[in-house]
């Protein structure tokens, strides 16, 4: 909790949480809200879930549904490009639609497949780390120059996106992520809609090209399977490709940048030989995915609190990851804590399909960068995007200490 947030009450914390200041520093506000309990009902149609066990239970509760097309018809968001696309993907589908869409693409993220990608990821990370040494200026922005370029390069390799197109897509991908935020005015979706239009057109064109000119990439394989089985429509195929592009680039990039920040601000805690436990603690302490939204499909009870059908339930993953009932000294960054099972990738049916790939990219990205520039340090205060749900750094400027790099 920041000094400014000490002594803040739950009502004030709630009012502040969705402001720019609250989004930059949400953790003290989560703590204030927990004074009301692990599950907080803020009226008949809004519920916050804050405790670890309560969040895990909510994500496994069959009566809580993701915000699918039916939910967004009621909000008006279905009229916007962002959600016209998102509601055609497995992440925002329920019941048999979710199983159908997930079953179509699950093979692409099989653990054996993902494990075999490490040499490719390592080669791209090494090339990008070496590129940093050629940039002008005393400091570099690692979000622009490294983390986002790495995850774009990896996703581009997997889906056959030419390197010449990748950088132009980066800002467009980031533009779509505010659509995941609580929207108080539908005009807030304008940038996301514009970005989504670009991505849908791009991936539709890529899929059409692979249908005529197949290559050894996931886009070609997915096009072939969709055409051969009829398991998904063309619109669902394109939406799925857009989802894999956004999810494959943004969250892993945020994780890499966040891990580098923690390695530089907590150098005594960073040991390359314990990288897995370090990344797990980063995921607990400051996860990219902070909040998941569910809709109560029926009347139900969460941790003893009645929830009405139709209520919006905000599952606060980042608050759960700092629950003192689950983690000793949760406000302290301790990579060696055990057990350490944060909820950052979710649990249950909607557990993140790309979790293993994100972790491998973060492992390789962090070890490559810190191994190449062992003396690098922060050049300025890291700056976060104005987002709560998909939290991530907008800029991470560092002094690489190029003269002391390992070659």
Total beta-strand segments: 12
**How does the helix and strand content classify structurally?**
alpha+beta
CATH class of the largest domain: Mainly Alpha
The CATH topology of the largest domain is Cytochrome p450
Provide mean pLDDT, rounded: 93
Low-confidence stretches: none
The main sheet comes to:
5 strands, mixed
Corresponding CATH architecture of the largest domain: Orthogonal Bundle
How are the strands of the biggest sheet laid out side by side? Answer: 1-2-8-5-3
Instruction: Say which CATH homologous superfamily of the largest domain is assigned.
Output: Cytochrome P450
The number of domains is: 2
Beta fraction: 5-15%
The total of helices stands at 17
Please bin the fraction of helical residues: 40-55%
Q: What overall geometry do the principal axes of the alpha carbons give?
A: globular
State the distance separating the first and last CA atoms. Answer: 41 Å
Output the helix-strand order.
HHHEEHEHHHHHEHHHHHHEEEEHHEEEE
Gyration radius (Cα, Å) is 21 Å
């Amino acid at each position: 909790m920041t000094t400014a947030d000490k002594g803040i009450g739950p009502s004030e914390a709630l009012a502040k949480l969705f402001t720019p200041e609250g989004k930059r520093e949400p953790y003290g506000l989560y703590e204030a809200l927990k004074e009301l309990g692990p599950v907080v009902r803020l009226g008949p149609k809004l519920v916050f879930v804050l405790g670890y066990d309560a969040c895990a239970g909510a994500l496994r509760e069959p009566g809580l549904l993701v915000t699918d097309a039916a939910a967004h018809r009621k909000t008006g968001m279905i009229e916007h490009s962002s959600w016209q696309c998102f509601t055609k993907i497995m992440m925002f589908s329920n019941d048999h639609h979710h199983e159908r869409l997930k079953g179509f693409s699950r093979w692409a993220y099989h653990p054996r497949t993902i494990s075999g990608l490490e040499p490719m990821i390592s080669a791209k990370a090494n090339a990008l780390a070496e590129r940093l040494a050629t940039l002008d200026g005393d400091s570099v922005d690692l979000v622009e120059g490294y983390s986002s370029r790495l995850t774009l390069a990896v996703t581009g390799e997997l889906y056959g996106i030419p390197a010449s197109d990748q950088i132009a897509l980066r800002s467009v991908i980031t533009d779509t992520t505010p659509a995941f935020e609580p929207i108080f005015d539908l005009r807030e979706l304008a940038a996301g809609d514009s970005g989504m239009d670009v991505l849908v057109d791009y991936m539709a064109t890529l899929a059409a090209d692979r249908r005529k000119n197949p290559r050894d990439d996931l886009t070609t394989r997915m096009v072939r399977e969709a055409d051969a089985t009829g398991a998904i429509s063309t619109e669902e195929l394109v939406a799925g490709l857009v989802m894999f592009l956004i999810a494959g680039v943004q969250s892993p990039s945020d994780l890499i940048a966040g891990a580098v920040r923690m390695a530089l601000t907590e150098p005594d805690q960073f040991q390359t030989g314990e990288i897995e436990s370090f990344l797990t603690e980063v995921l607990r302490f400051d996860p990219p995915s902070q909040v998941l939204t569910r809709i109560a499909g029926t009347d139900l009870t969460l941790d003893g609190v009645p929830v009405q059908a139709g209520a919006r339930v905000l599952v606060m993953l980042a608050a759960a990851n700092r629950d003192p009932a689950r983690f000793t000294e949760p406000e302290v960054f301790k990579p060696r804590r055990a057990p350490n099972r944060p909820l950052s990738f979710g649990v249950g049916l909607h557990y993140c399909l790309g979790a293993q790939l994100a972790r491998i990219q973060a492992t390789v990205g962090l070890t490559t960068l810190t191994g190449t520039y062992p003396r690098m340090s922060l050049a300025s205060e890291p700056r976060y995007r104005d987002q709560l749900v998909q939290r991530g750094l907008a800029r991470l400027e560092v002094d690489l200490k190029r003269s002391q790099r390992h070659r």
